[in-house]
Design brief:
Blueprint lengths: L2 H39 L6 E6 L12 H16 L3 E6 L11 E5 L6 H10 L3 E3 L12 E3 L2 E3 L6 E9 L10 E6 L2 H22 L4 E8 L1 H4 L4 E6 L1 H5 L15
Parallel strand pairs: 1-2, 1-3, 3-8
Antiparallel strand pairs: 4-5, 5-6, 7-8, 7-9, 9-10
Helix pairs in contact: 2-4
Length: 251
């Protein structure tokens, strides 16, 4: 074997080794990224999860608002990327605890009983005005001492939370997507899909609650979203009980 042939063979071998090392490195990084994503969402390979959705105010018995359907599609893609499976349940049939399976709960407490229960037990510092009568505070959020009112199509708020059950052997998280309108529900799921890596680096597997603002949804849909603030502490601190009304009777 002359020098030219030997150099060619060595070059081919070196190229093959480099390609193999590159493939191994890319595979390792991809798997590490996948494991971090699975840990954040509580979705190991072939695990089961719940998609709990509210029902529309009109239409057939199991009618879901259009934007809530889009929100479910956003979440279904995340779940599939984690090599996990999802079961969709209407809010009034999801009568079970949490912690054994990851749960994604979509919709405000006015149309989602499951969301109302989660807010009451896990985020007692949050109150959502669900009055049917029109008023400036209708649909508003009260978080701690701050109130956030809705301006339909202009400024709308949503709560994104990742919460885990305490003293559970398998603390799978529950994710809450509680918007003031249906389009803000989709905006919240899209925000999570786009920012889950950053959120995982910041919070790890700990609980958090973020207040988001959807800007000019009538023009931009669910795409323009900004984080107002981290409201975890205020949301987890119970609000003081309202003062009882005094009853005055005529003598």
């Amino acid at each position: 074997m002359n020098d030219d042939v030997r150099n060619i063979v060595l070059g081919v071998v070196a190229a093959g080794i480099s390609a193999a090392l590159g493939w191994v490195a890319r595979t390792y990084l991809w798997k590490r990224k996948l494991r971090r994503k699975q840990a954040f969402f509580g979705l190991p390979d072939n695990s089961e999860s719940l998609l709990v959705v509210n029902r529309g105010a009109a239409g057939p018995e199991f009618a879901v608002m259009r934007y809530d359907v889009f929100a479910l599609l956003e979440l279904a893609a995340l779940i599939k990327d984690c090599n996990a499976h999802a079961q969709i349940l209407p809010h009034d049939t999801a009568r079970q605890g949490f912690g054994e399976r990851t749960e994604f709960c979509v919709g405000g407490p006015a149309s989602n009983r499951r969301m109302a229960a989660h807010l009451s037990s896990l985020l007692p510092g949050v109150r959502v005005n669900v009055d049917a009568e029109p008023s400036p505070d209708r649909g508003s959020f009260l978080i701690g001492s701050e109130r956030y009112r809705v301006e339909n199509g202009k400024e709308e708020y949503a709560l994104l939370a990742r919460l885990t059950a305490e003293r559970s052997q398998h603390p799978r998280p529950v994710f809450l997507f509680c918007g003031q309108t249906s389009i803000t529900n989709q905006a919240t799921t899209r925000y999570l899909a786009r920012n889950h890596e950053r959120l995982a680096r910041k919070y790890g597997n700990n609980s958090f609650a973020l207040l988001l603002k959807v800007i000019n949804s009538q023009a931009y849909g669910p795409d323009v979203v900004e984080m107002v603030e981290d409201v975890t502490r205020a949301a987890q601190t119970p609000l003081p009980a309202p003062a009882p009304r005094n009853s005055h009777r005529a003598p």
